[in-house]
Write a structure and sequence with these properties.
This protein is of the alpha/beta class and 229 residues long. The protein has one domain: Rossmann fold. It has 9 helices and 10 strands. A 5-stranded parallel β-sheet has the order 2-8-1-9-10. A hairpin with a 2-residue loop joins strand 6 (81-86) and strand 7 (89-90). It binds 2'-deoxycytidine-5'-monophosphate (DC). Residues 13, 35-36, 39-40, 104-105, 108, 134-137, 189 line the site of 2'-deoxycytidine-5'-monophosphate.
Length: 229
């Protein structure tokens, strides 16, 4: 019998972490958790409760207020996927809006928010058999994960992919603006004081600038095999 492992995938934004992680989980029959979605859900809670005023977090009574946000996942059997919930309500669409994207960096930098999310993430991974993607999964959440991958890709290639993705959806997309946004997010992710984005010493780098998803899967399958035997 193969043993169940924990797979931690970290890396820069718009590297295709989620699609890659989802596919690995599907292949192995593992649970897939998008930790970014959890930070997005808390951010939505902050917005709903008017805890962000003119771009600043209201600090009074914050630890107690954060406890009110119950982030979870519910299984959607027609989509065969888990969807993010906030206080029992599916918020998968709301958390992907610009309103949430604009504030998720400041909310995810609050130590109390991170503490709560990390605790929940560890609970979800206690029986192993999980693929989780994010920024601090291999460094903070699961420092003992059997497989840690750090994803990166040239920022221009990421911006180009994102531009095409938006255009396909019929949305206006400006390459220069998208590139600036990606590079700014890279900077913020690495510069933040709490749990900055950093490659764990034992993480294996995957630069997918010039790789298809099939090539990435072939690359990871070998690594998984070595670890589950
Ligand atoms: O992966 P994403 O773009 O959906 O993540 C949304 C935000 O949450 C992004 O600003 C980085 C932050 N995040 C984090 O701080 N720690 C994680 N483990 C995952 C995401």
């Amino acid at each position: 019998m193969n043993k169940k492992i924990v797979i931690a995938i970290d890396g820069f934004s718009s590297c295709g972490k989620s699609s890659f992680a989802k596919l690995i989980a599907q292949k192995l029959g593992y649970l897939y958790i998008d930790s970014g979605a959890m930070y997005r859900a808390v951010t939505l809670g902050f917005i709903q409760k008017s805890l962000i005023v003119y771009g600043e977090i209201k600090k009074d009574g914050l630890p107690q207020k954060i406890q009110q946000f119950d982030v979870g996942f519910s299984y959607n059997s027609s989509k065969k996927e888990y969807e993010t919930t906030l206080n029992g309500v599916v918020v998968e669409e709301q958390i992907r809006t610009i309103g949430v994207a604009n504030y998720v960096s400041i909310v995810s930098a609050i130590p109390e928010v991170r503490e709560l999310m990390v605790e929940l993430q560890r609970k979800l991974g206690k029986d192993k058999g999980i693929v989780m993607d994010g920024r601090d999964i291999g460094t903070v959440v699961f420092p003992n994960a059997e497989l840690k991958i750090f994803m990166t890709a040239d920022s221009k290639i990421r911006a180009d992919r994102r531009t095409k993705e938006l255009m396909l959806k019929g949305q206006i997309a400006n390459f220069a603006e998208i590139l600036a946004n990606i590079e700014e997010r890279d900077r913020l992710d690495q510069a933040r004081e709490v749990s900055p984005l950093r490659k764990a010493d034992d993480a294996i780098v995957l630069d997918n600038s010039h790789m298809t998803i099939n090539e990435q899967m072939a690359w990871v399958e070998k690594l998984i095999e070595e670890r589950i035997m």
